[in-house]
């Protein structure tokens, strides 16, 4: 029996990420199972003329992730001597935000390594010049130092060959050069101090992602210090005493400079990353606060939460709608319409914030506001009535992109409601209840430029607000309801005089 291995590789087709499989794999019985298990987000054929007859699977993963998963599952197939099959290409558990954070962390460590290499190169060049001036008979030591400096200067170029290539080359060359010089000159030069410095730098350069490797390199440095102390004499006699002491002083100073400079730069990079993360966190919090009330957002972030649903015995609801919106949308350019709605809703959002209310949602030209939810308040209905009057004033002078007036229909209602968060993805905060339905009907049965309320709202607000009686209105699902128009506050003398002079009248009742 022969066993074959499916060829799996990733390519880009016009910007579409696609995983290719060897011909014939589309007939494998594994594909339906993978589809049922939800391993692939979609199964489509790639219309690629250069790859006719091949099946294209479109998982929501990056090209590198697909290749890594394919290798892992291919090895599993070989190990188990299975027949031709499609390997499971599971989604990478690392979220896009985590992947970006990992990339940023790797770049930060690479910058720290480059700075360390540049400082080390400068120190080694200084020692090469110092050694040449002190004792030219040992000419190979300055050349060795210059060669080491050249390697350190090439460290930034080595980063392109992999995340670990550059740091491993750096530490290997540094360890080798320090060991050779200590053996030749003696441990009294203090060069073994660089092993201690390297032990501190390894963790900073490699990070916690490669903590084991950093620990191994640091252990090698510590072992080298111990072995040199026992196996190499303090002074081999190859330098005069004054040069020997000078080298020790310069070694201590340069090691201190290298350690402090590297740690300072690394801590500065960490601080910048922390500030960037805090800024992103604040931005995410602001975005979440624009979607959900703050208290609801805090509860939603609680991992122990199950269902967010609250009952409110008394709350008030407002619906507002642009009269004739469908006609306006049909004869207005899309960009102009969106710009107009954005300006309108921005002004209304400012009013909501000023009155301490909560905007629930917008749908096209429909605007919904709730008062007394999620924070109960005794004056919720009065606050919402003031909001309705201010909304009417805000659009009084507003014109659409074609210069037409923008009359609003506004409806209010009050009563018990239930509020909660719905959905696991693209969730939203909504309010339900009979009061919500009544407020919506008050808006749809209203006339342009008026604020319509039912009888119970009138009874609760008549002492502080002025009303005009409309009369009975046929409301879908409710039958006849006695309604009123909210026209102003009682403390507004001009409005009060106008109401007293005009007879109470209203349009012919109609049903929603």
From TrEMBL:
Query: Which intervals hold domain Guanylate cyclase?
Result: 316-443
- Provide the catalytic activity annotation: ATP = 3',5'-cyclic AMP + diphosphate
Give the UniProt record's GO annotations in the biological process aspect.
cAMP biosynthetic process; intracellular signal transduction; receptor guanylyl cyclase signaling pathway
Q: Which UniProt keywords apply?
A: ATP-binding, cAMP biosynthesis, Lyase, Magnesium, Membrane, Metal-binding, Nucleotide-binding, Transmembrane, Transmembrane helix
PROSITE patterns found in the cross-reference section: GUANYLATE_CYCLASE_1 (PS00452), GUANYLATE_CYCLASE_2 (PS50125)
InterPro entries, per this entry? Answer: A/G_cyclase (IPR001054), A/G_cyclase_CS (IPR018297), Cyclic_nucleotide_synthase (IPR050401), MASE7 (IPR048432), Nucleotide_cyclase (IPR029787)
What Enzyme Commission number(s) appear in the record? Answer: 4.6.1.1
Q: Where in the cell is it found?
A: Membrane
Gene Ontology, cellular component aspect: plasma membrane
Q: Which residues cross the membrane?
A: 112-133, 139-158, 165-186, 192-208, 213-232, 244-267
Q: What Pfam families does the record tag this protein with?
A: Guanylate_cyc, MASE7
Q: Which GO terms describe its molecular function?
A: adenylate cyclase activity; ATP binding; guanylate cyclase activity; metal ion binding; peptide receptor activity
Q: Which family does it belong to?
A: Belongs to the adenylyl cyclase class-4/guanylyl cyclase family.
| Quaternary structure note | Homodimer. Can also exist as monomer.
Q: What is this protein called?
A: Adenylate cyclase
Q: Which organism is it from?
A: Mycolicibacterium elephantis DSM 44368
């Amino acid at each position: 029996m022969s066993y074959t291995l499916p060829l799996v590789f990733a390519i880009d087709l016009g910007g579409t990420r696609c995983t290719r499989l060897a011909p014939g794999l589309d007939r494998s019985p594994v594909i339906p199972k993978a589809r049922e298990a939800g391993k692939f987000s979609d199964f489509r054929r790639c219309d690629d003329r250069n790859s006719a007859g091949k099946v294209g699977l479109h998982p929501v993963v990056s090209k590198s992730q697909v290749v890594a998963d394919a290798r892992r599952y291919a090895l599993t197939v070989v190990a188990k001597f299975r027949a031709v099959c499609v390997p499971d290409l599971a989604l990478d558990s690392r979220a896009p935000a985590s992947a970006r954070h990992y990339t940023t962390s790797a770049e930060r460590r690479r910058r720290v390594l480059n700075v360390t290499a540049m400082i080390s190169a400068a120190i080694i060049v200084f020692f090469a010049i110092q050694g040449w001036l002190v004792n030219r008979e040992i000419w190979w030591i300055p050349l060795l130092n210059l060669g080491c400096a050249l390697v350190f200067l090439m460290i930034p170029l080595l980063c392109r060959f992999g995340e670990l290539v550059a740091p491993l080359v750096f530490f290997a060359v540094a360890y080798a050069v320090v060991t050779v010089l200590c053996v030749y000159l003696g441990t009294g030069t203090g060069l073994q101090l660089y092993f201690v410095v390297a032990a501190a730098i390894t963790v900073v350069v490699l990070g916690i992602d490669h903590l084991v490797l950093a620990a191994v390199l640091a252990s090698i440095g510590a072992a080298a210090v111990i072995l040199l102390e026992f196996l190499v004499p303090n002074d081999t006699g190859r330098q005069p005493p004054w040069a020997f002491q000078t080298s020790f002083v310069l070694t201590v100073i340069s090691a201190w400079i290298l350690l402090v400079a590297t740690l300072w730069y690394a801590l500065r990079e960490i601080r910048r990353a922390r500030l960037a993360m805090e800024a992103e966190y604040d931005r995410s919090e602001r975005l979440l606060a624009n979607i959900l009330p703050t208290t609801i957002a805090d509860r939603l972030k609680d991992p122990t939460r199950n269902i967010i649903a609250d009952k409110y015995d008394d709350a008030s609801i407002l619906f507002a709608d642009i009269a004739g919106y469908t006609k306006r949308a049909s004869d207005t350019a899309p960009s102009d319409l969106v710009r107009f709605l954005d300006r309108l809703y921005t002004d209304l959002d400012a009013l909501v914030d000023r009155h301490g209310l909560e905007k629930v949602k917008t749908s096209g030209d429909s605007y919904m506001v709730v008062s007394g939810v999620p924070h109960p308040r005794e004056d919720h209905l009065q606050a919402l009535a003031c909001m309705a009057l201010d909304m009417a004033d805000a659009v009084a002078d507003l014109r659409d992109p074609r210069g037409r007036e923008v009359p609003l229909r506004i409806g209010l209602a009050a009563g018990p409601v239930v509020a909660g968060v719905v959905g696991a993805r693209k969730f939203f905060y909504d309010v339900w209840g009979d009061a919500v339905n009544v407020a919506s009907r008050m808006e749809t049965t209203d006339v342009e430029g008026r604020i319509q309320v039912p009888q119970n709202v009138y009874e609760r607000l008549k002492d502080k607000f002025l009303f005009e009686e409309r009369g009975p209105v046929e409301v879908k699902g409710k039958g006849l309801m006695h309604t009123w128009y909210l026209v102003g506050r009682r403390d507004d003398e001009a409005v009060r005089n106008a109401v007293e002079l005009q007879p109470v009248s209203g349009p012919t009742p109609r049903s929603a």
